[in-house]
Amino acid sequence: MSAALQPHAPPSPDNGALCLVRTLVAQGVDTCFANPGTSEMHFVAALDRVDGMRCVLGLAEGIVTGAADGYYRMADRPAATLLHLGPGLANGLANLHNAKKARSGIVNIVGDHATTHLALDAPLTSDIVAVATPMSHWVRSARSVEAVADDGTEAIRQASARPGRVATLILPADIAWSAAPDDASAQGASIDRLRAKPLDTAAVARAADAVRRGPTTLLLIGDRALRHAAALWAGRIAAKTRCGLRSDFFCARIERGAGRTVVPRLPYAVDPLLAALGDYDRIVLAGAKAPVAFFAYPGKPGVMSKPGCEIIELASPEHDLEAALAALAGAVGATAADTAPLAQRADTAAMLADGDLDSPGIARVLTALIPENAIVVDESLTTGRSFDGMTVNAAPHDWLTGTGGSIGFGLPVAVGAAIASPGRKVVALEGDGSAMYTPQALWTMAREKLDVTVLVFANRTYKILLGEFANVGAGAPGARAYDMLSIDRPALDFVQLANGMGVEASRAGDLRSLTDQLRSALAMQGPRLIEVLVN
Amino acid sequence: MSAALQPHAPPSPDNGALCLVRTLVAQGVDTCFANPGTSEMHFVAALDRVDGMRCVLGLAEGIVTGAADGYYRMADRPAATLLHLGPGLANGLANLHNAKKARSGIVNIVGDHATTHLALDAPLTSDIVAVATPMSHWVRSARSVEAVADDGTEAIRQASARPGRVATLILPADIAWSAAPDDASAQGASIDRLRAKPLDTAAVARAADAVRRGPTTLLLIGDRALRHAAALWAGRIAAKTRCGLRSDFFCARIERGAGRTVVPRLPYAVDPLLAALGDYDRIVLAGAKAPVAFFAYPGKPGVMSKPGCEIIELASPEHDLEAALAALAGAVGATAADTAPLAQRADTAAMLADGDLDSPGIARVLTALIPENAIVVDESLTTGRSFDGMTVNAAPHDWLTGTGGSIGFGLPVAVGAAIASPGRKVVALEGDGSAMYTPQALWTMAREKLDVTVLVFANRTYKILLGEFANVGAGAPGARAYDMLSIDRPALDFVQLANGMGVEASRAGDLRSLTDQLRSALAMQGPRLIEVLVN
Fold it and tell me: Residue A59 — pLDDT band, cuts 50, 70, 90?
């Protein structure tokens, strides 16, 4: 601890918390998702004195960290979170896991006891560094009030790297409240934000050799290669060479829909995934990883490419993926003149013909009604397993999926995406089971009047687990096992849950009412929930 | 990994998961709070084949771990939890923190990917040992299918120690599904459960010297010294020697009410706590820790006993605290003939006189209506800050408070306490802010038809933080800071939230309706919620 630290001094006009908030704002981190406690009160107090920070309250910490993930996915720059000691951080870890796998940059500020208080082992004491480490790329406990601006700057630099990183800065209460020396109010050095790694020309040549082999090569793209401009190049390469073009199943953000390159996601389940990859002797990776099974299953392989398949990495998320794909296109002679398979806008009237309230029916309604420039957050799991192919002819939009496999990301990511993207409609597709991990997000939507339409697909089971029970070779569930997989006793009433948190809601029991209610929800501003009764 | 492990074999009749469930049941761990996923499906399947395990589903992992804490507090033996990989465990860590501080024994079973799958770094992969470590006393990844019964036995032994410990056993999916050799189906060695540490006779003598000094000595009791039989001895010692008698503010379980020794809890806030301890030159500890401030505050001490105060430890939670207090009573000549200050039953009619819906009014209603042998779980924070003294003349009951300071323990602990104590009414006292960390517990109450009455005190602020904002020297909150401390926009409707999860509910806006609604809730069987509009 620094000699200048004043653990028992009255608050000074300029203190460590104020320095840190100033540093965040000066470096462009102007949004903070927060669930504060006593040790964060000086950070909260600083909000009254520093302009330019939007602070958004969540009622539980999973909302806070998931919102920061959604914010980064849309803004391409980090938000801050404000969390209360080890347990508050712990409650946010699952969505930090997802954010880490999404490669979302986040600056977590976690309050701690005063440094003088830690030795007393008060009840809330825990090893915050240890709690943070598994789900952070970078962890530091602020060193002193003199160094807190630099510590904050380093956290922002880490979070702003390419790809984004989860940076956790622990802020002891006495560093927050102690008087800052004048020169500590500096706001840190300026940050070189998007240092893309230089392209590897040898990798471009190897990838060019591979895609020139045509249909026996797969170009597998991920991360920012799924943005429109980058995917355009990928489409031209595929059109020119007739190589396959796919993305991972899990994608932080895909720009897709009418006018965009069609990049089908690989399937989730092992058997269709093996089938999808069975024709390829080579896989060229651009921002994606070599495909593996999500879970291991008895008697099935974990590596999903066929035996002997060659994996060639063109570029990773550390590179400028658009430049990498443009370079590959150049190497194989693919230009803008090559016919990329762009998606066509569907015939809306045909899509809205009557039908059953099943996944294909819902997908047709989505295809017809997803507004242009909407952001779709997809945690619909079993109901939405095949939405990818079925909604490709919707108006152009972004599609955000789970990335780390931890359930409960959808509603919080929708909060963050909405805050990062004013003027754009967010459509959150949720399973009923997954919605219940972080339902408190609805309250933040109401509080911030976020323009989010939530569809909850209520099948009243953990349906994904019914399938997985068989997949792992456990046979058919008996009564006791089935009881752990069903959530119909009692039935959840999402209309009441949403109303209880200030969100207008309705229930759709057939495709016609879903169409009418979704149309009405999309026409209004602000949050709206529709419980969709599916089987 | 063991040579006998069969990662790709079909499931066998006896597999690792079955061995583990058999071991748990054989060792008396017959209750499992669960939120399973794919990697736990073989554990779930085993429930169909092993009798004697009650498995209780929670919709979020904080419910699961908090319920295991509440179960231990009432049953004095551990329950198991079943959690899904690193993120599932992470979601349960905050309530494991509380359980650890409550000294509750818990056996966490956390599924992991198959050992063969970890190297592939699939999306759900994380370092589960690292996630578990900060909130566990003991962590092990099951070593092999042959050893899993022994690993489980060791976890149960750890959790069953005195005091209880949080033991986390990670169960890789291939160990769960692989065929168990015949001799691995054994259920582990028998466990020596309650190995109390032998009493230190020199400590008894030192403590006796101290309490003989009378009113300048405080006998501070905690942990199982707060059970009726032990507290009776403490009361006799205080009656005989005129020493002070108090408990910590945070208590896992206090047996109190009419006919029990009055053991006032120390105050929470620093100034009253300093005042309460200002008369004491010596503090004798029996299962309690030397008092420290919950948080550090500028200009205030962290150690709460007066300077120079001597701390004498009679016994810790590792000892048999009833025996320790009996020994101390013997040493000072206090016998059953000494007049212990037992609480008297209040005059119910006087308690139920009309009045304002404020903390004293609510406390009078509770004093009149808490049923005999009820279990009160108290997470009422600001509203209930003074309930301790005000409800001392209620019918005899148990009172369970927060222990680790992490908010969101109340409703889950009520679930676990109800399951551990059939036939006893549970009354959960919740703040509105705290209720929203783990509201999903209401669904488990409805599903299991638990006999829990929940009072939510809706002041629509994080009122505790309004006080703390000033306490840490941040002055008065401005508009932006205040926005982070208030939860009135939109107002939460707990009647709809409860109904949405299958729990009957009503709202009380004055003391008369609170009395009527509480009386009706206590007269029925099953869960019931009352939203109490307070200021």
Answer: very high
Secondary structure of residue A487 in the 3-state scheme: coil
How many domains does chain A divide into? 3
Sequence-ordered list of residues with C-beta below 8 angstroms from that of A398, at least 6 positions apart, any chain: A74, A253, A254, A255, A256, A374, A375, A376
Scored b (16 or more CB within 10 A) or e, B82-103 reads bbbbbbbbbbbbbbbbbbbbbb
* Same-domain status, B503 and B391: yes
- In angstroms, rounded to a whole number, what is the distance separating the alpha carbons of residues B223 and B102? 8
Could you tell me if B275 lies within 8 Å of chain A, comparing CB atoms? no
Task: Tell which of B117, B249, B480 to mutate to test the A interface (max A CBs under 10 Å).
Answer: B480
Host domain of residue A26: 16-179
Portion 499-518 of A in contact with B at CB < 8 A = 499-502
Say which of B59, B296, B404 has its CB closest to residue A114.
B296
**Strand ranges inside A262-309, DSSP E:** 282-286
Q: With H, G, I as helix, E, B as strand and everything else as coil, classify residue B262.
A: coil
Looking at the complex, report in whole angstroms how far the Cα of residue B131 sits from the nearest Cα belonging to chain A: 6
User: Do A299 and A364 reside in the same domain of the chain?
Assistant: no
Closest Cα partner for B477 from A52, B486, A174? Answer: B486
Q: Distance (Å, rounded) from C-alpha A303 to C-alpha B473? A: 57
Three-class SS state of B124: coil
Give the span between the Cα atoms of A472 and A481, in whole angstroms: 14
Is B164 a domain residue? yes
DSSP H or E run through A54? strand A54-57
ipTM metric: 0.96
pTM of the model: 0.96
Based on DSSP, count helices (H) and strands (E) in chain A, helices before strands: 22, 17
My answer on whether B401 and B374 are in the same domain is: yes
d(Cα A341, Cα A234) in Å, to the nearest integer? 10
Q: Which of residues 166-225 of B touch A (CB under 8 A)?
A: 173-174, 177
Which among A9, A97, A293 has CB closest to B126?
A: A97
Task: Answer for the pair A7, B302: CB distance below 8 angstroms, yes or no.
Answer: no
d(CA B22, CA B80): 13
* Residue B161 covered by a domain: yes
Contact B436 A303 (CB under 8 A): no
Single residue among A302, A332, A362 that ends a domain in this structure:
A332
Tens digits of residue pLDDT in A119-155: 999 999 999 999 999 999 999 999 999 999 999 999 9
Confidence band for B350, pLDDT divided at 50, 70 and 90: confident
Q: What angle do CA A68, A70, A76 make, to 5 degrees?
A: 90
Query: In angstroms, what separates the C-alpha of A396 from chain B's closest C-alpha?
Result: 28
Strands (E), B100-239: 106-112, 138-141, 166-172, 217-221
Looking at the complex, report in whole angstroms how far the Cα of residue A530 sits from the nearest Cα belonging to chain B.
Answer: 14
Name the token pair of A96: 């930090």
- Both A134 and A173 in one domain: the answer is yes
Question: Are residue A311 and residue A169 in the same domain, yes or no?
Answer: no
Name the token pair of B100.
């650890």
Q: Clarify whether residues A368 and A324 are in a common domain.
A: no
* A462-505: pLDDT as tens digits: 888 999 999 998 989 999 999 999 999 999 999 999 999 999 99
Residue A57: what are its φ and ψ, rounded to 5°? -85, 135
Q: How far is the C-alpha of A287 from the C-alpha of A247, rounded, in Å?
A: 9
Chain A positions touching B484 (Cβ under 8 A) are: 34, 36, 44, 47, 55, 57
Question: Which of B338, B14, B313, B29 lies closest to B184 in space, CA to CA?
Answer: B14
Q: Can you spell out the DSSP letters for B435-464? A: HTTSTTHHHHHHHTT--EEEEEEE-SB-HH
pLDDT, position B188: 60
Q: Are residues A133 and A208 in the same domain?
A: no
